[in-house]
Amino acid sequence: MAKPDIGRIRRVHTYAWLWEPLEGEPSFVLRSMFGTKAAYLEGKLTVCFSDGKEPWRGLLVATEKDHHASLVSEIGDLRPHPVLPKWLYLPDSSDRFERSAERIVGLIVRRDPRIGVVPKPRKKARRAGPKPRP
């Protein structure tokens, strides 16, 4: 029998308040991914909430490069991520972080076609066992 969580202190993610508007969406899924919390809607990866150290502190917006200019012109604080330039990054250090982050989440809720990428299918895990003999 699993021990109850009574008395344990659970860390609340820094950006949990941002994914709350997505929680009411029937297809919403939140998963851990590379130290972030990744939000999926209708099977698409839309945004990662990252509360590490720069450049991993803020929102990583999953989008195709074709949409970068349009999104940056609409939300001026966005820029290509310095490590993952295929995605846009809203750093927590931005003066308008809260407002810009809420706008991004609003675009996701409204199913803006510029945001979201279909993740590649996961590879099947290899079965453990003896290797076939030649």
Question: What can you tell me about this protein's structure?
Answer:
The protein is of the alpha+beta class and 134 residues long. It has one domain. It has helices at residues 16-19, 68-74, 97-109; strands at 29-33, 36-41, 44-51, 57-61, 79-80, 88-91. The chain has a 6-stranded antiparallel β-sheet, covered by helices on one side. The protein starts with 15 loop residues before the first helix and ends in a 25-residue tail after the last helix.
Number of helical regions: 3
| Biggest sheet strand line-up | 1-2-3-4-6-5
* SS class: alpha+beta
Oligomer: single chain
Order of helices and strands: HEEEEHEEH
For the residues shown, what is the average pLDDT? 88
The coarse overall form would be globular
State the helical fraction.
Answer: 10-25%
Give a short account of the largest sheet.
Answer: 6 strands, antiparallel
- What is the beta-strand fraction? 15-25%
Tell me the domain tally.
Answer: 1
Report the strand count: 6
Unreliable segments of 5+ consecutive residues: none
Kindly provide the radius of gyration, computed on alpha-carbon positions and rounded to a whole number of angstroms: 18 Å
Please give the alpha-carbon distance between the first and last residues: 46 Å
